[in-house]
């Protein structure tokens, strides 16, 4: 995790975040000054950013929104006040409406982003300045410290070449907190094909099978927000095991980038999980990231203990083979 410290100074009215990365200062600068790079991490897990405007000049405006896992939209904007490339830039950071205009009754801040060389790479020092104690406390109560930390903690995957970062690593599982788990897997194929493989029934039945000896008997994906979906599996003839299935609702579709669904076992009572799948392509390979939100830690641990990761890896190996055809 690149974040090394987050400190709040109520007297100076500041929040300071420091992150150290194993990348050159120039590479870190690019991550913060190119919208395609920013969209990969600017926003905590489950709230990815989309930049609709990015005028990186003094007096220029960057407009963006973050889309929550249930389709919620949070708009914001930067006004660039100072640019000292490739060392430092400063923005006026405010909430915005759907037109990109600042919302005056919401707290804003002046934020600086400085990039410094270190013996092992580069350091980001970001200082947010608030106009009052009330504004600082309001932003902290809204979860700014936690959200900012989680967003910057995603930098490692952005700064490294995807093949170097994930190729050969298999299915990786990170427990983020009591209710969130992040699963990543590099697929040797383009994003468009990986998206189709998740949404076309004939393709789903070729790879989403879990351990050997099972077949997918029902593949009814939800293709648009508001749709329901249904999947079911059974052992092949003569195999051992009991048929089962999952069903849920499709909440967000941003093809071919992101889809968010609920998931529950067919015929079983109880709360659903929330599955947030994102796909990012670079140099012909696709990084698949699945953020799962569980109702509680006990449910999280119970599901992880079922061998879920091993079954997913076997399926992703089939998806690799499909992408290679």
TrEMBL record:
Q: Which residues form a coiled coil?
A: none
Task: List the InterPro entries.
Answer: ASHA1/2-like_C (IPR013538), START-like_dom_sf (IPR023393)
Ranges for domain Activator of Hsp90 ATPase homologue 1/2-like C-terminal come to 23-159, 190-323
Q: Which family does it belong to?
A: Belongs to the AHA1 family.
Name recorded for this polypeptide: ATPase
């Amino acid at each position: 995790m690149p974040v090394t410290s987050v400190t709040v100074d109520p007297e100076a009215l500041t929040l300071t975040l420091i992150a150290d990365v194993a990348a050159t200062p120039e590479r870190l600068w690019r991550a913060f000054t190119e919208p395609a790079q920013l969209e990969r991490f600017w926003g905590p897990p489950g709230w990815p950013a989309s930049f609709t405007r990015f005028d990186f000049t003094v007096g220029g405006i960057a407009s963006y929104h973050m889309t929550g896992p249930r389709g919620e939209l949070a708009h914001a904007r930067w006004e660039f006040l100072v640019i000292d490339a490739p060392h430092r830039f400063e923005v006026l950071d405010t909430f915005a409406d759907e037109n990109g205009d600042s919302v005056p009754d919401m707290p804003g801040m002046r934020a600086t982003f400085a990039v410094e060389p270190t013996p092992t790479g580069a350091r980001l020092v970001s200082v947010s300045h608030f106009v009052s104690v009330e504004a600082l406390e309001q932003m902290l109560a809204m979860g700014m410290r936690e959200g900012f930390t989680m967003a910057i903690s995603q930098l490692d995957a952005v700064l490294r070449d995807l093949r170097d970062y994930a190729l050969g690593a298999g299915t990786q599982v990170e427990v983020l907190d009591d209710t969130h788990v992040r699963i990543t897997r590099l697929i040797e194929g383009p994003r468009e094909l990986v998206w189709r493989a998740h949404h076309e029934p004939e393709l789903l039945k070729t790879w989403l099978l879990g351990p050997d000896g099972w077949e997918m008997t029902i593949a009814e994906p939800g293709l648009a927000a508001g749709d329901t979906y249904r999947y079911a599996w059974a052992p092949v003839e003569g195999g051992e095991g009991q048929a089962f299935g999952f069903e849920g609702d499709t909440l967000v579709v941003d093809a071919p980038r992101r889809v968010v669904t609920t998931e529950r076992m067919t015929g079983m009572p109880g709360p659903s999980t929330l599955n947030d799948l994102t796909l990012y392509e670079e140099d012909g390979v696709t990084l698949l990231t699945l953020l799962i939100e569980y109702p509680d830690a006990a449910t999280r641990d119970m599901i992880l203990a079922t061998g879920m990761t091993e079954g997913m890896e076997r399926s992703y190996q089939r998806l690799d083979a499909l992408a290679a055809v």
